[in-house]
Task: inverse folding
């Protein structure tokens, strides 16, 4: 029995050592794929295939150099997706949704205003849901504060 426990302990210890050797800062497959597709559309692959690109740009060594590049200041910052611009938002939750829960009432009020804004192009260029915050996100933030 003690031989079995020693063997189990040794296997567990070697497994933990193996896990600690994995790169913690390597890109995920999804992040690497997005990076590959961006390079592919920009034409900067220089004939590299997926596996070559992944090994060169998505491993632990590649992410440390990418982090150094990311920390460098960028010359032109992209406008924030959450900037409301000239979007029109409701000032309060609509009384016709008084029987709903607070979250549903805000959602329905925002959706009614979004649909009304669509015809007059008053959504500030925002979609209902966008990465970084769309009309729904901004509207509910404002209604929660009101």
Result:
């Amino acid at each position: 029995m003690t031989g079995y426990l020693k063997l189990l302990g040794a296997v567990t210890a070697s497994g933990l050592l193996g896990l600690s050797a994995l790169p913690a800062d390597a890109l995920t497959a999804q992040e690497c794929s997005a990076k590959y597709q961006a390079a592919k559309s920009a034409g900067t692959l220089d004939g590299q295939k997926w596996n070559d690109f992944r090994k060169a740009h998505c491993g632990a060594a590649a992410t440390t150099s990418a982090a150094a590049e990311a920390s460098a200041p960028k010359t032109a910052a992209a406008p924030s997706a959450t900037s409301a611009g000239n979007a029109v938002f409701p000032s309060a939750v609509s009384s016709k949704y008084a029987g709903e829960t607070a979250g549903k009432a805000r959602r329905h009020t925002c959706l009614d205003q979004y649909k009304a804004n669509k015809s007059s192009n008053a959504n500030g260029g925002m979609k209902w849901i966008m990465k970084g915050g769309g009309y729904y996100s901004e509207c509910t933030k404002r209604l929660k504060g009101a």
